[in-house]
Specification:
246 residues, Rossmann fold, seven-stranded parallel β-sheet
Length: 246
């Protein structure tokens, strides 16, 4: 596989870390963004201790100006971004009739508007070089909806709408755009949920278990090689069979 420059947003989280490690293990030059300096540097050292050299660029993906700054810093350190994984995301769960405007906007800005903010600075370079990979990390709840997550489900569904439009615009230029929609993954956030609640979630999953971050990282890596160049506008559901759609 040709070594490329990959930028993974939200790379210091559970799924993001697995994606960064898998892409680095495949020989790609990998970077992620951060907001908290101390936490990011500690994470970077952990990666180095494990044998992975991941570059860092400070910035908030929900800000167009800061997103452009992230891309500029990554390109300064590693070169033009050829693989972009839009993974950054947050939750602000509550039923819609109780949802405050800031709970709606924070999720939309971080989970959906960030996809524009991060992709816009890299797409022209990809078009000029006639090669690129843009991959969105959406969610099972963007496909089926979820009680108390109107903001999150709307953002995640919007990510795939973005995917299928951008895929059509760039298909003839060697750029593929795809989505991975994870189900419930055994990240620290999910494992912090009370055990009885987790057990109810697992009972709804045909495979009988939570997914692992490494399994989502594999799904991301599937879209990157040249052998996957005829796959674009796709949504890969990685959810243990919990939601099965066309």
């Amino acid at each position: 596989m040709t070594a490329r420059v990959a930028l993974v947003t939200g790379g210091t989280g559970g799924i993001g870390t697995a994606i960064c490690k898998r892409l680095a293990a495949q020989g790609h030059k990998v970077a992620t963004n951060y907001r908290n300096e101390d936490k990011a540097r500690a994470w970077q050292q952990q990666m180095r201790d494990a044998g992975f050299d991941i570059a860092l660029a400070k910035g908030d993906v929900s800000s167009p100006a800061e997103a452009a700054g992230i891309v500029g810093e990554v390109e300064r350190q590693l070169g033009p971004v050829e693989i972009l994984v839009n993974n950054a995301g947050i939750t602000r769960d509550t039923t819609f009739h109780k949802m405050r405007p800031e709970q709606w906007m924070e999720v939309i800005n971080t989970n959906l508007n960030s996809v524009y903010n991060m992709t816009r600075p890299v797409i022209e370079g990809m078009r000029e070089r006639r090669w690129g990979r843009v991959i969105q990390i959406a969610s099972i709840n963007g496909q089926k909806g979820q009680y108390g997550q109107a903001n999150y489900a709307a953002a995640k569904a919007g990510m795939h709408g973005f995917t299928i439009s951008l895929a059509q615009e760039n298909a003839r230029l060697g750029i593929t755009v795809n989505t991975v929609s994870p189900g419930y993954i055994g990240t620290d956030m999910v494992m912090a949920v009370p055990e009885e609640v987790r057990n109810k979630i697992v009972a709804q999953i045909p495979t009988g278990r939570l997914g692992s971050p490494d399994e989502i990282a594999y799904a991301v890596s599937f879209f990157i090689p040249d052998e996957a160049s005829w796959i674009t506008g796709a949504n890969l559901s990685a959810n243990g069979g919990q939601y099965m759609g066309w």
